[in-house]
Structures are given as C-alpha cells and as structure tokens.
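Objective 1b. Sequence-to-structure analysis of Cytochrome P450.
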Amino acid sequence: MRPSATFIIDLQYPQHSPNPNPRQQHRNIAMSPLLLLLALAALSLLAHATYLVIYRLFFHPLRHFPGPKLAAATFWYEVYHDWFRGPYPGSSWNVDALHKRYGPIIRKTPDELSIQDPDYLDTFFAAGRRDRWSGQGKEATGSVQSTLLAADHKRRRGALTRFFSKRSLTRLEPEIVSKVQQLSARVDESFLRTRDILDAGVAFGALTLDTITEYCFDQSFGCLAKPDLGPEWRRTFWDMLESIPFLRNWTFFAEMFFWVPQIVVRYTNPGMEQFFIMQRANRAKVAQVTREWEADQVIKAAGGDPGKKRGSKRTIFYDMLDSAVLLPRDKTPKRMAEEAFGMVVAGGYTTGKAMANLMYHLHANPEWLERVHVELDSVMKGPDDPVTLAELQALPVLTACVKENLRISCIIADSIMLVEPNEPLFYKDWVIPPGTPIGMTLYHMHMDERIYPDPTAFRPERWLKAAETGQDLDKYFAPFSKGTRGCLGVNLANAQMYLGMGVILRRFNFELFDVVEERDVRTVRDCFVGLESPQSKGIRFKVVGKRE
C-alpha cells in the first residue's frame, strides 16, 4: 500500500531527528528575520494609521467642525467619491450633499474645510492675501492659476494682467473679429452648403483655441482653416480633464506620465496623441519666442532698435521674457511651457464649451432666441454689417442670456481651495485656525435657490428683473472665480462670447439635432471643469439657412 504524502514527508524530515537536514535548517533560520520584518512593518503601519485616526478625531485643530467622521478620519473618503463612486464620480457633488446635511461649514477631509455661503465669497477671495492649496502642498504646474504662494502668484499674474485688461481687449478686438469671420465662412462652406451636422462645441472651441494661441505666439493652431474645424482637440481636452479626479489625489502619477514613452500612451489612450502634439507645439513656440528675444537683446546691446526688425506687435510670451517684474526662475523654458499649456487649456476649452451651451439654451427656449434676434437686428441691420463689442455688451437681453448661461453651465465644478497662512479667519461663530485650507464650490453657489429660484432652469429674466429692481446678483456671480485668484482671461472670454455669438446668430438659422439635455448638456462630472455625460454626442445643429 502506498503511504500518504504526509507520511513520506515525516519520514524524510522526522521531528526528533538528531541530524536534521542542514540546508533546510539554514533556510528556516534565514526566513525568520524576513517574516519578522514584515510583521513589524505591518504592525507599524497599523499603529501609525490608528494614531492618525485617533489624532484626527480627538486632537486635531478641526475636530470640532461638523461633518462625517469618516471624512475627518481619512483622505480615502474623498478619494472614494472622486474616483469610485458612481455613476459619475465627483467629490463636489458629495460636498454639496454634506452641506445640506451638516450646514454651511463642514470638515470635508482631515485637514480641509468647506464653506457654502454666498455671503462669504468676498471674505474668501480677499485680495492678495490667500495662498492656493493643492492638497499635496506643491504646484501641479508652473502656470499662474496653479501657483500656490500669494507672493509668487501676484508677481506672475502682474506680468500678464495688461494683456487681458479691457484696454488691451480693445486693441485685440479686430483680431477676434477676424477669427469670428473665419468661423462664419467655415460654417457657410462646410456645413450650410453641405448640410453636414455642426457640433457647436467643436466650432466654438476652434474659435477660442485659435484666438488664444495666436495671442500667445502670433501663430494659431489653425483649427478654423480645417473643413471639420479640428474635432480632435475637443477629444484631447476631454481625455486630459477626465484624468483630473484621479490625478488630483495622486499628483506623482501626473509627473510619471511625462516619462512614459509616447508610443505606450498612443496605444493605451489614442486620444492623448494630440496632447503630446500640443505639448511639443507649446515648447517649440516658447523656444522660438526665446530665440527672438535673445536676438533682440544682442541688437539692443549694440545700440540698435529691435522693434524695427521685429515690428510693433509683441506677444504675451515675448513680454514675459522682457519683464523686469519676473524672476529668472519664472522665465525658465519649463515654466513658460507650462504657462502656455495652462492658457491653451483654459482659453481653448472652457469658453468654447460655454458658447456651445448658450447655443443650446437659446434654441431650446425659442422665445429667448427670438428676443436676442430682435436685439442683434437692431445693431446689425444686415447680416454682414460690422458690430463692436461695446454695442453687443450694451444689449440687455443678450447680456442676460450670457450671464444666465454662465451661471448654469458650471465652468468650474471643483472646489476652489485657498489658505490664509498667518491669521485666523472667522465664519459666524466659528474660528478657523491659520493655515487651514478652505474650499468653496462656485457651481453650487450658483445653484442656491435662495438667490436663484428654480436654479436648474434657464431663466434670463432674473437678470433683467435684478437690473430693474437694483438687486445685486453680481455679488453672488463668479463663473470664472473672483478676485486676484479669478480667471486671468475673463475679459477675453467675454469678448469672444459676445462677438462670436452675436455674429453667428445674426447670420445663420440653426435647428437642434439629436440633443438630449441630460446626456449632452447638463454637467454631471467634476473634472475641475464640469463635464457632461461620457455618453454625450455633443451639442449638434443643422445649419438650415441664412438670416436676412
């Protein structure tokens, strides 16, 4: 009879053998310290985690603030809502739900507070005093918008402010009009005559992307010259933005991304191919501007006038290199390229998205479209008549529609996190310790039914009535953020919206094509910028004719 395997082993290695196998004995002895180290490491991690939870719940300076205990105990609570909670992850919607349960001030993570009170906006955005908070204590990029320290932000923003002032936009207006004319010609040639379907997000994205790149580098990406208006860029922006819920919790993955071979990314995520193209284009354009600036310095040193050679037109990045305000570390090729990237993403996607949304809301509410047409006809007697930005901004109905669309469009969905590093802040009876990150979610401010009754509805009349009654709705209106931390390009964005919408709506008639608001328009995802459903087909139109 065959003995069992256990019996064989026992025969080979008897427990009381006076001469155990030396090799096996050596292996057992060698493994013991490794197992001991692993056990000690596990116990240390468990002890550290236990200590953190006890400290955060019972001894942390924020322990008295309301909110769920799990959010106070661990950052994994926010990670779960950012990345895993379905159907569409996004922590700002969870924060809104927590405010409804716990009140206007809550502890959203172990170290961070959130305030949801429109009357606190001015205190929150107090000019020049607030550092930005990244969650990881470091800048995601070197751009102005992601700069953490208030002093660095003030210096970098100051070097750019004049390019985006209302006075500068007056000089830039002819260039914006030229781009709008290009878009109008493309709508006529590629969509009206062919009866192809026009994606408004792609169309207005082409306008805004070409405008900002030409302004930055004196050379656009050329989207308006393409018959299809370059739809690949919208997909690229989507791919980048969809990664934000993950990357804002683990920024080191974002840094690793740039070290991954391009061919790997191309096959794992084909949409990001354009990202690398844009990165290379930004770096190349910054390098070109740098060479021009260095050549001009040689001419200056020789007593010449580089302006005669280069001409009077200067770009944003030439002036950054020429700035006496910026420090040498602000002018490195890496930081300049990151600044360019931030401008292109912010200026090339968000404004185009807002314009597409306005097209939808006007055509979904034809009574407002008709009123806008009446106003446009009053300042442009013929469809090809010239019009100025000032004339369009003076139209009350168009302005009310633009504002209501910005309120409801959710350009910024994420919480804006700022820090007062030196002094305590006060909210009602609460004392907020210095150095505490505080967040406010502007989209949910715009959805506050105490200020905006029926907040999810497109109701431009609220702005017209406010103008008649003297109600200051602008106090609670911050679609591009506010104060010194507000969007640098807000004037440029408004100019493109008024001129672009004014000219296109005056010249063409459109019909919505297979657009479902819940699928294609409504914001359901917090990717810093608010995004619609992944199943969205875009805000699409038939171009049915020209207006007389």
